[in-house]
Design brief:
9 helices, 60% helix, 167 residues
Length: 167
């Protein structure tokens, strides 16, 4: 089990708790609400098409795929997305060759999951919507803030961070 990659991450503890809950299949997406006999529309708030399941929302939705592909290209990492969160976290560690940036790489899935969840909830409950480009910027800034706050790495600019990731 990839629990160590969740709990040993330098991401904020509330994010680790969220990812742990998602990995256990317990966040309240439409499919989980329906299992609890709550009547809701089966709708993905991000792609506005498919049903709202955990793996769809956080990994396989067309909107989520754009975010994931953006980060794979930043880090220069070829990747085939596995089916579920546990599978992703289990194989995540070997994706980054650069030891300097490795701790930032380890925070990427938690950061993407967290930002996608917040975006989904902003759309669902507040009627606010970012486009993909804005969300890419948000995830990138969040990752940079986490690396700085945890003392992992400090960058003077986004460009400095991007250059370090693909070095």
């Amino acid at each position: 089990m990839p629990w160590k990659s969740i709990w040993k991450s330098k991401a904020p503890p509330r994010v680790a708790f969220f990812v742990w809950t998602a990995a256990l299949g317990r966040i309240l997406t439409t499919d989980n609400l329906r299992r609890r006999q709550v009547i809701v529309l089966d709708y993905c708030w991000l792609c506005k098409k498919n049903g709202d399941s955990i793996s769809h929302l956080l990994m396989h939705c067309s909107f989520a795929k754009e975010i994931w592909n953006f980060f794979f290209s930043i880090f220069g990492t070829p990747w085939v997305m596995p089916y579920g969160i546990l599978d992703l976290l289990s194989c995540w560690g070997g994706g980054c060759r650069n030891t300097r940036i490795r701790k930032a790489w380890d925070m990427v899935p938690l950061c993407i999951f967290w930002c996608l969840w917040w975006e989904r909830n902003a759309r669902s409950f507040e009627g606010m919507e970012r486009n993909v480009l804005e969300l890419k910027g948000l995830v990138l800034r969040t990752l940079m803030e986490w690396t700085k706050a945890s003392g992992v790495l400090v960058f003077s600019s986004v460009l400095d961070f991007l250059e370090s990731c693909n070095a």
